[in-house]
Amino acid sequence: MGRKERTKPAALDGVRMEITGMSEIIFEGNKGILAYSDEGIMLNTGKYIVSISGRRMRIKCMNESVLTICGIISEIRYIL
Amino acid sequence: MLSVFILRWMFGFFEFEVRGRFPERFINIASRNGINMWNMKGSKNSFSAAAKTGAADTLRNYAKKTGCELTIQKSHGLPYLIKKYTSRCGIAAGLALSIALYIFLTGFVWNISIEAPTGINSYEIRALLRKEGIYEGARISSFNTEQAEKKLFSTRDDIGWIAINLCGTDINTSISAKQDVNRENNKEIYNILSSADGIVTRMEIANGTAAVKVNDGIRKGQLLVSGIGEYSNGKTHFDSSRAKIYADTYRTVTISIPKKTTSTQYSMTGQRSSVTFFGIELPTALFTGSEGTIVKSRTEQAVLFEKILPVKRTTELIYTKSSKDIKLNTDKAKEILTDRSKLYEIFMLADKSGGVIKKKSCRLQESDSEYTIITDYTIEQNVAVRQLIETDREPD
After folding, report:
1. What is the pTM assigned to this prediction?
2. Mind listing the pLDDT tens digit for each residue in B263-302?
3. Among B14-28, B116-130, B141-155, B279-293, where is mean pLDDT lowest?
4. Which residues of B touch A60 (CB under 8 A)?
5. How many angstroms separate the CA of residue A5 from the nearest CA in chain B?
6. What is the ipTM of this complex?
7. What domains can you pick out in chain A, each with its CATH number?
8. How buried is B306 (Cβ within 10 angstroms: 0-12 exposed, 13-18 middle, 19+ buried)?
């Protein structure tokens, strides 16, 4: 009662995606890039694959598990 | 975002391109080993990105392991800039020297500005500041502004408030004059008398009982406002009279000039200039004036980007006096006499606060030896003069 609900950290849940409009995604829980081109990025999360398609896609910055994807995003698919 | 760019620039970064069959493997290995990459643009079998300077060798190893080829395209940032200019000793020395010079020069006072009200001479204040060790070129650490404030405050009676502020290398001094506190004893009784003959034109009475009215003719010394008044019930009251009584006064002024006169002329015979740097004067031309010369000086302060620099150029123009006997004609005499009477008017009105010349008529007279201009003035001026009434009597 009265306690603030806190978002679970990505490490516990596996994957966390923050989508800004259709131009930027901050992706947490990446375990490896499977494919990377101008038109799409496929990311391995361990349990499933996330495929992000669009145009002029690029990784703005990346470290061990977090990456920021920019471009004109048209589709996000989960491949089990 | 700007701060991130500045940090990246300071530590240095490079842009590279990776070519191979599986560049994604390269990205995964690099990111798993904690190498941050940004601006990654992918295309078929290749991608380009940027990474920090120190990661170049590690990335090359990962490229080799994954069967890719890594090419460094561009290097950015401070470490590369330093590397580029290390071989050019002159630039490094110049940079070091300019930084050292900057640090050294900011330890001195560059400029002193004084904001003083009328009545307080800024040159005197400057001299007092100099006594306290505050002058252009003084080391900032060698004086204490608070102590100087106290000293100046105690030295000068006319200073009501003083602030000496050190702003960077500038000293800003703000001074307020001491307010005249009216310490007049309210028990003292004053009358107001006339200081000249004339006709009253207007009266502004703050205290006291009027003894004259507008359009009355008055004589010098006549009572204008009385400090002793009477209530309607017949009781007497005493006042410290305060009033401004304006009256038209009359004055005739005669100014003469001999027909044969000596004219003094000054002609420029030389010029000398000097440069003052941090209060130290360095003459740029050696020229000394002889007897009968006067010097007119002009100072120009160096200003760069609205910042006053501690460099001044002083130019002194040297004029030599020469006299010539001349005989005046009527026109020239009239011109000279008119100028002199104008000068007289300026000084005469300066004496009389709020005095206005309402009417003036002048006539030129010529005798054998001189020209004379006689001017009749009608001046409206405040003729009120306060006079203390000596009395032991207490009001009813």
Report:
1. 0.41
2. 777 888 877 888 888 777 777 666 555 666 777 888 888 8
3. B279-293
4. 38-40
5. 30
6. 0.75
7. 14-79 (2.60.40.2000)
8. exposed
